[in-house]
Each structure stands twice: as C-alpha cells, then as structure tokens.
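Supplementary Methods S3. Input chains for the assembly prediction are listed below.
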Amino acid sequence: MRAAESLPVTAIGRLDTAGRLLDAEMRLADLNERAGGRIGAPLAIPQIAALARLAQRLGIAISRNVVAADGEDDIELWVRAEPETGSVRLEVSGWQARPGWRGPANDPDRNGDFLRSAADWLWETDASLRITFISDDAGTRYGFDVATMLGQPITRLFSLEQDGSGNLPILNAVAAQARFQGQEAELRGTGRGVRLEAAPRNDPAGRFAGFVGAAYMLEGDDVALPEPDAPLPTPGPFGGFPDSFSQRLDRALREPLGRIIANADSISAQTEGPLKPDYAEYAGDIASAGRHLLGLVEDLVDLQAIERPDFTIAPEPLDLADVARRAAGLLTVRAQQSDVRVDKPALDERLPVTGEFRRALQVLVNLIGNAVRYSPAGGMVWIRLEREDGFGHVIVADQGKGIAPEDQTRIFDKFTRVDPAEPGGSGLGLYIARRLARAMGGDLTVDSAPGMGARFVFTLPLRLEAFGDDE
Amino acid sequence: MSDRPHDTRHGSATGAGKLLARAVATEARAARNLKLAVDDFFLPEAVRLGERLRSELALMVEKLTGGIEMGIREGARRLLAARGEASLAATLDRIDGAVHRRLTESGLLRDAELMAELIARVRQEALAAALPMHAPDDPEQPSLLNRFAQHPDRMLANGAVALLMAESRRRGTGGSGQAGDLPAELQHRLTWWVAAAIRETAAVSAADGAAVDRVLSESALRNLAAYDEGDRLEDAALRFAAALDAPPEELAALLIEALGDGRVVLFIAVLAHGLGVSFSAARDLVLDPAGEGLWVALRALDLPRGAVAQIGYALCEADARRDLDQFAERLDEIMALDPIEAGRAMATLKLHPDYRAAILALASSGNMT
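Predicted structure tokens for the full assembly:
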C-alpha cells in the first residue's frame, strides 16, 4: 500500500497538557497534516486527541483501537496514550486501511464464538500458550485429567503435528496473530487424534493475548470429521448464544433493521425535503450498513436452520432454467449499478430437476450476486445450463479476479472470505449455499484460476419423468 | 373496522353465556397484561435487565432446575429398582419442561435471595466477557493464575488450579458438571422445590404416592449430600485469595492483573479478602454501575491513584452503564478520600449479613403507627 510500507510501524508523538502537538514522527505528523493540523496546534485527529485527554485526566496509559479518517479512506489505528510530566506520549501503530463497511466476520471475538459452535470441546490459552480453560467434561470423555492440564503449556495437552508443508499452523498463527484451522495433534497419552482451530484474542493495544479454540475429535465414539462431505457434527448452543436468544434473533432484529433501512432510504432520497448533500450521503451509508446487517441476520438464521440435525428440505419438481432467470432478474438493478451485464438463460430453455424452489433460488441469487460483485465494470456474467450424469447443472461464470486453487475449498468454509479487505458479506453465503445444494441431493463446486474469473457449478438431480415430454 | 354481518342463528344460549364469561376474562387479562407492559416500560434503564441478560438468566434458571431434576429423577429410579419397585419407574419419566414450568408459575422462583444470586451471576459473567483483555508486556509471561499454578508453594499452586478448574466447570458445556453450585442454603431450597414439583407433575396413583414420595425425598437428600459448597467457583476464589493473603503493596497489581485476565471472580475475591467482607458484599460493590461503593472500597485499601484509575477505566469499558467521563471527572474527589475514613465507611459491610438485612428491612419499612 503506497510508499507507506517502508515507514516504521509505530509512530511516536507528544502532546502538551493543552492537547497541542509538540512533535510527531513522520507518519503521525503526515496524518495530522492531512487532517488540517500542524505542530504547535491542537491535534487534528479527534479520536486520538480524546484518548490523550482521557489518559491525562486518569493519569494512566490507555490503549484503544481507533478508526480515523485519512482523506477518503478510513484507517484503523492502535493508539496508546501515556501521560508524562507536562505532556502525553502517543504511540500509534496499525495503519491498516479499512473498508467503509466491514462485516463482523473480521471481529475475532465473534469469530471465535461461531468457530466454536460445532466443536467437540473448547479450550483457551493465554499469550504464553498456557491453557486457561478446558470444557469441563472433555477430560472424562476423552481420557485425560483436566486438573493436571490447566495452567500448563498447550504442548503438554497436545502433541502437535506438522502439516503437509512441514509447518505448525498454530505457530504461524501466533506469529501472524491470525486465526488457524486444521492443526492436527494427538491428545497426549490417549492415542486419540484431534483437529484444532482457534481465533486469536487481542488486547486493546492490538497485542496477542491468547487463543480461543475448538477441538474436533478425529476418531473414536465422538467422531466429528471436519471434511465437508462428512455428516456434520451436531452443533452445540448456536454461536455461543443461548438457544432462546437465537430463536428471537430473526424476530428481534429484522423489524427494527427494516425500519432503520426504510427511514435511512427516505432521508437519503430526501423525500421529506432538501438536505445537505453529505447528510443525504450519510443516510445512504446507514441504509447500506443496515442492509448488510439484515443480510447477516438472514444468513445466521439460515445457518442455524441448516445446522440443526433435523433440517430437511421439501423437494418439489422445478425448472432450474426458470429459477436461474428469476435469480438473474432479482439482481438486474444491482448489476446495472455496477455496470455488469448478466447473460441469463433464454426464455424457452428448460431444465427440469428436483429441489426446493426457494432454496434453489437462494443458492442462485447468492452465486449471481457474488459474480456481479466481483465483476469489473463493463464485465459480463454468464449463466449456462447443462445436463450430465443425471444432474442438471447451472454454471455461473464471471470475469472477476478468480480464485486461487488453494482457496477453492476454503471458500466453502464458514466465515471464509478470500479477500478479507473486500467489503460486505458475512463469509457465510457459500457455506450455506453448498449445504443447501447438498441437502437437495445436488452439489455446489467451483473451478477457477487467478485472473481467469470464477466458475461456480450448481447441480440438482434431474427429474427423470420429465424427460419424456421435455425432449 | 369490519362491517361484515355475522350470522348468529346457530349460537345457543349456553354457548353465549360461556362466550360472555370468556370475554370478561379476556378483558381482565388485557388489563393485567397492560399493567405488566406499563411496569416494564417505566423501569429505569439502569435497573432493567437487557435482552441478553434476560435471556442468559432464563437459560441459567432452566439449566439449574433441569440439572437438579435430572439428578433427583435418576437417584429415585435407582432406589425404586433396588427395592424391587421398578414398575413405578415409568411414573418418574421426565415430562419436558413440566417441572420448570410449574416452578415458574408457582412464583417460588421469585425468591429474592435466589434471584439476587442468579442475577449477580449473569452480570458477573457479562462483565467478564466484556472486559478488555490485557496482554503481558513479555509474551512469554503466563497469565496470573497460570503463573501461580506453577508456584513452588503447594497451597498456592493447588489453589490456583482449583480456581481454574472451578471456572472451567462453571463455563463448561454442562454434561457431567455438578448441577447447581449455588450457595448451600439456596441449593437446599431449590432441590426441595424441584423434588416437590416432580411429585406434583408425576402421574402417580394414590396407592403408589407414598412409595414415590419416599424415593423422591431420599434421592433429594442423597443429591444434597453429594453437593459440596467448597467446590463452588466463588469459594475456590476466596480460598485462593486467602492463601495469597496479598500484602497491601501488592494488592493493586493483583487486582489489575485479575481484571486484565478477565478473572472477575478472582478480582471480587481478592477485594473481599482485602476488605474483610463477604464475597457477595464485594460482588455487589463491583457490579453496582453507580460505583460509589467500589471507589470507597478501593480507597479503604489505600490503592494509589493509578490503580484506581486503571480499575475504573477497565470497568467503564466493560459496562455500558458506567460513565467513563463522569469517572474521570470524579477521580480527584475519590483520591481526596482518606483511607481511614473510607475504611470506616466500609465497616457496615463487615457486619453479619442477616444483621445488615434486618437493619435495611427496618429502615425501609418506616413507621406503621
């Protein structure tokens, strides 16, 4: 990202007791100047100025994650303000450009909650990778003594195994302060294999404070294979929330969000009278953030439904060509806004299959919506129909930047986004779409190469009795 | 709105009478519902439990009664089998939610002490979840309890591990964990209520009633005998705090680190031990969003300004009901308080809790004559 890459990560600055900038290292000084400030004048970045004031009033060092405007962009900063005699010392690091709207999938805590919802048991560590928490019944279920493991290094509980490229995913994750999955290990002394996943926990200064982790047993009575094709583990309480909470999630959030969106839209459209243009624009932002949240609520409600052991679909005869045309029709406006053309199946094409209409429509809206989102302006999205081996195929192809082979399985995981910097999306859409496709007896696959665009293939079983009058 | 004419020709006189009675009942119910809604609406925001806490509380009550119910039913069934009365076992089959429903409807669960304990517990857990984590300056340095778990002093090491265990149990997914872990008195009360509710909801013939009563009460007694108040998280924390017996100059660092590790129960226990008050008294100080009591308590421990500021800051960050700005505003005033005077103000907290409750009850009852 620009020449900024070569600058030191942390910029130091000092304010006097009246909040005037005494001195600042280049990066901070530049940011302050772009915001209209200068040395000797009050700091022009209000969030940092407020933090410095607070540190001074309380007389203690304070760390916080701050989002500051930098020209058109928002940047995410970790700021530490420490009062000294006659001044406040600032340490500013992070300097990550932040998309205008971020899905909560980037939020490690929430991420952790969801990550753990389907696990066999849970564990947590502190920054030194010593165990601070283990699900209380894990010991009796899998044959180890919880009391002798608490407080011990994680390697005392797990004998970690290297992955295909000779790395320990957990150590890479510590270094990168990132989430990891697929760390295989043996539960020491039990001969049982286990797969570990975890999300990092950070303190307000952005430092690594430990892992919030999940464990999936690989064999034995409590089998919960992680492979997407395997029957999925029975989920625990949904997303770490009590059941009663998630049951009401939909009802409790949909209506107020709907109202927020509707009102913000009418403010943005200035239906009640003229408004300063930037306020109208803010209202547009509120509406779009609201839509994002609403989409997330819908995803979560779906996720909860499809992860229930008793989830079923109601198969019915349907015409996949018709579903594809309708899905494309629903996205016409969005495609036009992004200057993308959608080439949908001709009106006389038919593809009789078995599935559930609204679920098939949901899958296709997701696929075409993604294709539109990742298409360059002036690009094209193709929707093609095929029949092969007793299945009807819908192929959705775009001219976007494509998906690297190593990401092609990952994109169907929960909360995976190939490019986390990309705004929007919960990282649930493809996961849900594939689960739905499989629940209907079909599948959802991808083939793509970076730079070549992505091709998603959605299949459903052909309706055999329909062949006679169809062809 | 509707102007559709209704066909009433088939309505019989008795039917109409019932309908009228129902309509009157509906009216009464509507009035009652409205009153409840109005009461709820006018609850001050600072007092009202938020949606999340309400939901957590409901779940906790359900888990508690459900766990105790399972224990009693299992024990009773075993007793029946041992006495050759296995034919009665079917009468003890669980009817989904019946016991919990009965206890809720009866109003027994409105018990002030039980609710005080449970509400404090959900608040305590919410606070722990919302506290900003604090990473050590040296990434190799283990967190507070993990350091003590390796301590050469066996008392301290065992105490730290017991606390880690108790916390894992409390937060665990249930299963084999001890059902309850309430203070002993409440555990007894709730166990008997559950046993009585099982009896009431079981389909037992009059002839078998005595046998079922016998096994239920015996099973309840056995469950209570197996219960050990000392296993409770709060007690483990108090024991650890007592074993540590931190000298005044180490108290500040200990309290701050406990908060930074998200160990709220330990924080409360260290505070309680330092002040020489009960766990629940210290917990009330910490959970009260107005916070005055806590600042006085921290002054009574003679904590330096930096420590008070850090603790106040962390609590404000974790609890939206606390006002950080107001706290910063008042910090000087708090620090101006003399520790000895603050200690004197804390003295009432050290009185016997029943005595304190009686004083409060007397004060709030006013004068009846």
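The first strand of chain A starts at residue 11 and ends at 16. Chain A touches chain B through 43 residues (CB under 8 Å).
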